[in-house]
Amino acid sequence: MKDTAKLPAPDPIAQQHSDQLLQLIFQTIEDRNGWLSFAEFMQMALYQPGLGYYSSGLSKIGEAGDFITAPEISPLFSQALGIHIADVLRQIPGADCLEFGAGSGQMAVDLLLYLSEIDCLPKHYYIIEASAHLREVQRQKINKIFGVQQNRVVWLDQLPNKFTGVIVANEVCDAMPIHQVLFEKDQLHEIGVGLKNAKLDWQTQPLTNTHLKSRCEQIHPLLEQFPYQTEIAMQATAWLATIADMLEQGGIYIIDYGYEASDYFHPLRHQGMLRCHYHHQAHNDPLILVGLQDITAHVDFTALAETAYEKGLQLEGYQRQSDFLLAGDILNLSQDNANPAFHQMQQAAALKRLLLPEQMGELFKVLSMAKNIEMLRSKSADLRYRL
């Protein structure tokens, strides 16, 4: 993990931006009797209007930002995903697509181009984006490709009451605010953020949140050693429960990095898996560079699968990203697109990043869920038995 002392210093404008957000967080901590849960802190650090990491105009995605997502690596990712999506859309004529957290808009563009090519466009392509800045980036990119008069892509400010079609969340759950909990053999503590010498500081207090405590009691038997610190994503499971209720017929694809419970709560991970990304460098201190860096946590796919089951969804598959993309014919797609030698070299490099286990192929997983449809491709190299 990167030594934070070696991270590049922010420029004066970025530092001023961070200082503004810090002052707001300081005041909020004082208003809350000196303590914020980490979930509340993470919410402000990432999503505070105008100041949070995802709400500002700072570059985030791509070479000029802090991280690169799979759709930015190659259009082959979105095309292979598009084959999965087309299987669902063909079962529901007139269905829509809904993408959460569309980032730069690259996946939306590549999906729509490919679905048009295979004559399987959704009636609408809805996007729900928390960042006003990213929404504008998406709008400009989509309008550049499809024209300002296009009406297929629609940005929503809130979830529809009912939805039929395909829902996609690529690297969304990892950025949802999480609680940090310290398990001791006979006690539970929540780790939050306070102030010490006019700086942010970790502070621990007895866990009092009823819902969080109930979840911790479910996790406790899985732990083999104490003390054990970990992240618990209450917001991610609540979000999935909401969209499960909303979905009348269709499929849900959650693509992210993470583990099933047996790996998530492994003794080797007793210090948690919180990660920060700044200028393509990873470290584990979220209390620095506030508003200037991404903060993420690995996804507990077992918790999501249990929520899906409780809400009446069909759990269709749990795959490594490599197996999901192979089931989406990514290798055949790469052959169809292979032309000049230089392009072939770029494509080969992209495939390695997307498929190899030491790259994204194994750490990233895909959880496929459905209501009143089938997802046969999601059963290829299926790992549901591990959930």
Map the helices and strands:
Layout: H1 12-31, E1 36-37, H2 38-47, H3 70-73, H4 75-89, E2 96-100, H5 106-117, E3 125-128, H6 132-146, E4 153-156, E5 163-170, E6 179-183, E7 188-196, E8 199-206, H7 210-219, E9 228-232, H8 234-246, E10 247-259, H9 261-264, E11 275-278, E12 281-283, E13 294-296, E14 299-300, H10 301-310, E15 314-320, H11 321-327, H12 330-337, H13 341-355, H14 357-361, E16 364-371
Parallel strand pairs: 2-3, 2-5, 3-4, 5-10, 10-14
Antiparallel strand pairs: 1-7, 6-7, 6-9, 7-8, 10-16, 11-12, 11-13, 15-16
What's the short story on this structure?
This protein is α/β, with parallel strands linked by helices.
In words, what does this structure look like?
- There is one protein chain.
- This protein is of the alpha/beta class and 387 residues long.
- 38% of the residues lie in helices and 23% in strands.
- It has helices at 12-31, 38-47, 70-73, 75-89, 106-117, 132-146, 210-219, 234-246, 261-264, 301-310, 321-327, 330-337, 341-355, 357-361; strands spanning 36-37, 96-100, 125-128, 153-156, 163-170, 179-183, 188-196, 199-206, 228-232, 247-259, 275-278, 281-283, 294-296, 299-300, 314-320, 364-371.
- Strands 2, 3, 4, 5, 10, 14, 15 and 16 form an eight-stranded mixed sheet that branches.
- A hairpin with a 4-residue loop joins strand 6 and strand 7 (188-196).
- Helix 4 packs across helix 5, helix 4 (75-89) packs across helix 11 (321-327) and helix 8 (234-246) runs parallel beside helix 10 (301-310).
